[in-house]
Amino acid sequence: GLGHHLRWEPAWERVALKPDYDVVIVGGGGHGLATAYYLAKNHPTVGRIAVLEKGYLGGGNTARNTTIVRSNYLWDEAAQLYEHSLKLWEGLSQELNMNVMFSQRGVFNLGHTLQDMRDIERRVNANALQGIDAQVLSASEVQQKIPQLDCSRSRRYPVLGASWQPRAGVAHHDAVARGFARAASRLGVDLIEGCEVTGMDIEGGRIRALQTSLGPVKAERVGCVAAGHSSELARMAGLRLPLQSHPLQAFVSESMQPVIDTVIMSNAVHGYLSQSDKGELVIGAGIDGYLGYGQRGSPHVIEHTAAAIIELFPQFSRVRMNRQWGGIVDVAPDACPIISATAVQGLYFNCGWGTGGFKATPGSGHVFADMLAHGRPPPLAQAFALERFASGHLIDEHGAAGVAH
Ligand code: FAD
Ligand code: PYC
């Protein structure tokens, strides 16, 4: 019955690494692939482009995240960047001719204390000024929209209200990576899997070539988009980035009938959940506190997260959990990305998206492509340069990160 599937065409062309390129992007996650796509599409004069990925395309944090997409950040710089991305999500399935399953089912950020509610009101007011859809809901409005949520006053941390972004939601992580990969390949980008960058050749203050597990490759410009491994790449260039790499975990339950039709996040009890189209509850919480590169995480974080979810939804105490995993997130001191040139000419970094970069995938690729093409940041990226760690103009988005770190 499945015989006709045997002749499926590969979604992207498998090509050998060439000895030189005009632009090399290191890291074939969603951000790297989006960068390559927008570079080839919007800036075709840049020339030959390659994406080098040490594993398989989209197998890093892109494959491991819990797919929440929203733009309700506090400060204008961040809110505008994430809103740019959200607008791109809204047309992405058409743009890529691939259903990325972007489902605008809304995101709730619950408030459990008076201070939570003050923070929620402040952020919703900021969002209103930024032109971003956001509302403050009372506890009874939350209860109406999420009847399964335990909003009783007798809970240890009763729900006092929430912020709600109706245009927010979830998308399919693999579909996004594959959509950008296929579209970039069709525009002539070389996508090279199993190719680890192991060194950088720098002469006269300029990047000249990369050493890789498949041999050397010359490059005029290099864009590093390697999430949790960005510090490792920076070290190859003799640079130190203000980043820490931590495990961040998630887990999913057995599949069940539709029970939750939105996304619910709680910073105070600290857990969040949604339900996938397969019927699994998709659950996560904060980072593991230690630094590390093991894509696993520790059991006590799972226990804490499960306790938080049961605090919100006591009926889920009987649901069995199916799978657990971790990814390595690159956390900057202000919980905001780094989109920046470096002291090495021709070498750029797009990293520091930490626990919240999936939602930014199209927007990040779009602005970073512009930066690689013109050698300077477009307006939306200007605030995210490395200089902010020297000038002190940090953009503190810890409160909006949704995940404790
Ligand atoms: P990645 O997908 O990790 O891509 C980087 C790639 O670089 C990897 O494929 C890696 O193999 C490659 N690489 C590294 N070093 C080298 C090298 N030397 N040579 C070649 N290739 C290299 N964000 C949200 O917005 N919403 C969420 O709900 C959300 N949930 C999350 C839940 C978890 C459990 C985790 C771990 C993260 C979550 N995030 C979320 C964050 C989000 O996943 C990341 O910010 C985002 O996916 C980063 O995308 P990327 O393409 O930069 O990284
Ligand atoms: O950034 O919204 C987010 C998020 C949710 C879970 C992990 N990150």
Describe the protein:
It is a single chain. This protein has helices spanning 30-42, 61-64, 76-96, 114-130, 139-145, 173-186, 230-236, 299-312, 361-374, 388-391; strands spanning 20-26, 49-52, 68-69, 107-111, 135-138, 161-165, 169-170, 190-192, 197-203, 206-212, 217-224, 244-255, 263-266, 271-275, 280-287, 321-331, 338-341, 347-351. With 405 residues, it is an alpha/beta fold. Strands 1, 2, 8, 9, 10, 11, 17 and 18 form an 8-stranded mixed beta sheet that branches. A hairpin with a 5-residue loop joins strand 17 (338-341) and strand 18 (347-351). The structure holds flavin-adenine dinucleotide and pyrrole-2-carboxylate. Residues 26-32, 52-55, 59-62, 64-68, 196-197, 225-227, 229, 233, 248-250, 284, 327, 329, 353, 355-359 line the site of flavin-adenine dinucleotide.
Element layout with pairings:
Layout: E1 20-26, H1 30-42, E2 49-52, H2 61-64, E3 68-69, H3 76-96, E4 107-111, H4 114-130, E5 135-138, H5 139-145, E6 161-165, E7 169-170, H6 173-186, E8 190-192, E9 197-203, E10 206-212, E11 217-224, H7 230-236, E12 244-255, E13 263-266, E14 271-275, E15 280-287, H8 299-312, E16 321-331, E17 338-341, E18 347-351, H9 361-374, H10 388-391
Parallel strand pairs: 1-2, 1-11, 2-8, 4-13, 11-18
Antiparallel strand pairs: 3-7, 4-6, 5-6, 9-10, 10-11, 12-15, 12-16, 13-14, 14-15, 17-18
Helix pairs in contact: 1-6, 1-9, 3-9
Pyrrole-2-carboxylate binds next to loops.
